[in-house]
Amino acid sequence: MTSPRIAVGIDVGGTFTDLAALHADGTVHTSKVLSVATDRAAGVLEALRVAALNGSQIAHIAHGTTVVTNLLLERAGARVVACATAGFTDLLELRRQERAALYDLAKHHPRPLVEQAQVIPVRERITPDGITLALTDEAIADVIAAVKAQQPDTVAITLLHAYGDPSHERALRDALVVALEQAGLVADVVCSHEALPEIREYERMATTVAEAYARPAVRRYLSGLSARLAQHDYPAPRVMTSAGGTLSAHDAASHAAALALSGPAGGVTGAAAIARALGVSRALTIDIGGTSADVGLVDDGEPLVERGGAVAGVPIALPRVLVEAVAAGGGSIAWLDDGGALRTGPMSAGASPGPAAYGRGGVRPTVTDAHVVLGTIAPGEWSGGVTISLEHARAAVDTIAAPLGVSLARAAEAIIATADATMARALRRVSVERGVDPRDVPLIAFGGGGPLHACGLAERLGMRQVIVPPHAGVLSAVGLALAPERRESLVSVMQRADAMSAASLATLLEQEACAMRTDGDDAVSLTVRWWLRARYEGQGYELDVAVQPGDTPGAVAERFVARHDQRAGFVLDRAVEFISARTTLSSAPWPVHFARPTRHGVLSAGVDDGRAMARVIEGPAVVRLPDATMRIAPGWTARALEIGGWMLEQQR
């Protein structure tokens, strides 16, 4: 009996649920269905049904989820009680003391996930020099009594300097687990030395609380999804993490905070695979879906992974694929503010009712409706069970055109230009802030709306090349399917480079790799990679530097200096220190062959001009792809790629 040889990726978005099936011969088959906002699992099962896949064919299902993002946005997570060192219980309130908006004194940061009354002081103290106030049985008993009184769903423990000495956290956790079980309270206990063993008390506490806040809902969701898949003889899903690898559903349930950017990470992973196939080492990426546009960066053929950042105003200082999301998707609603200025987003029509052109009850104008009015999205039947109505789109856009006293076409152009401006700003932030000149790299544009907006965005940024990948409309699902299974480990280091020997560095790296391996691992098929998080001594931020066991600390320090110069534009005459070490253990990526489709439907000025088999198309033209639409602007030329997809270039 042959083993199953189809890898499936399923990306659940705000409007569509996309599926990509990667077969053993490397070919790709895709499907797209409307998402079910009230039942995400229903969209997953419907996508599998439409794809006509049965469980015996499938090697694995990789899933991108927005559960954590939605929990944080809606503040719908678990009831959390936090335990913090006495005197440091106000860390979540104090934050970093930066303003929410520099020039708006009335704007405030979102409220912490845990209110001050739910933070319990712990009588203990560990400093960098050791224990100065021991954690006594009496202090533990006081904490247990306070926790029981609040009857939380989860408990988050963040004690001072636990990244260096976790003994107090472990003692308190063990006592709490026993006491809560005896009291009949089923509560997870999350420790900061496990969630984020790094310096910076605020970020460590915020990340630990986020893990505790999201874990119960993530566990319920993945358990329910796995059960419903099992009812139809499908395997339990792997889940994409923010860092670009996948975890089993069992492991993902205990790493909720690491799933905050699960869906967008799949898109950048797929874009990186396209870049490698074309020999492109660096590129900007944009994934324009129905609700948002996600901007990323491919560096050295891989998604750029960074630490930190906030999700829905909540700092989560874990490694994540660099993705900046802005509210500028196809379903983003256009509206006039009190001053009569045109805006798009952040409100979205979503999947229900969707853009007015869908004919599902939506009446407010969206970016999609503007494209329908201009003819860049053709009326009629589309994938995902959508029928586009020009009449409904025109009626919606007229609610903008009439008050402004302009034509429908002018209003539609303005809606698209407003959305483009929002996305262009995000592309500049992602690139320029990291020392990348957007004029020197191509733009990989995907998602249902990426190929439509690509030329306009490139022109705003001075970019002359755009790559529209094969399966552009469902590339995030492709990225999910081919992403490797990956485990990650983080350990605190806190040593200067000149005080560390090559032998001690090699031992540290090898010990972490050995600790991550399990009995069932096939060592031959696993790839181990290491990074040291480094900074100049006393500096307020760090950079990740790739390292191998044979490297000397001095060589790694030199690598950091060169990276710092490239990123920040200067070097300092200071010692380099290592903050932490990150280790990843990955399986091999799933093989994929991007085959060029045999036929492309081409419209120029709304007329089929017979160039459906064309290898080179000069703009202006609109190409209807199997799962998206590509617009070739005037002055641009599109060339069909051997791997499928298109290379668009602006003529000089």
TrEMBL record:
<dbReference type="InterPro" id="IPR043129">
    <property type="entry name" value="ATPase_NBD"/>
</dbReference>
<dbReference type="InterPro" id="IPR045079">
    <property type="entry name" value="Oxoprolinase-like"/>
</dbReference>
<dbReference type="InterPro" id="IPR002821">
    <property type="entry name" value="Hydantoinase_A"/>
</dbReference>
<dbReference type="GO" id="GO:0005829">
    <property type="term" value="C:cytosol"/>
</dbReference>
<dbReference type="InterPro" id="IPR008040">
    <property type="entry name" value="Hydant_A_N"/>
</dbReference>
<dbReference type="GO" id="GO:0006749">
    <property type="term" value="P:glutathione metabolic process"/>
</dbReference>
<feature type="domain" description="Hydantoinase/oxoprolinase N-terminal">
    <location>
        <begin position="8"/>
        <end position="175"/>
    </location>
</feature>
<dbReference type="Pfam" id="PF01968">
    <property type="entry name" value="Hydantoinase_A"/>
</dbReference>
<dbReference type="GO" id="GO:0017168">
    <property type="term" value="F:5-oxoprolinase (ATP-hydrolyzing) activity"/>
</dbReference>
<protein>
    <submittedName>
        <fullName>Hydantoinase/oxoprolinase family protein</fullName>
    </submittedName>
</protein>
<feature type="domain" description="Hydantoinase A/oxoprolinase">
    <location>
        <begin position="204"/>
        <end position="485"/>
    </location>
</feature>
<dbReference type="Pfam" id="PF05378">
    <property type="entry name" value="Hydant_A_N"/>
</dbReference>
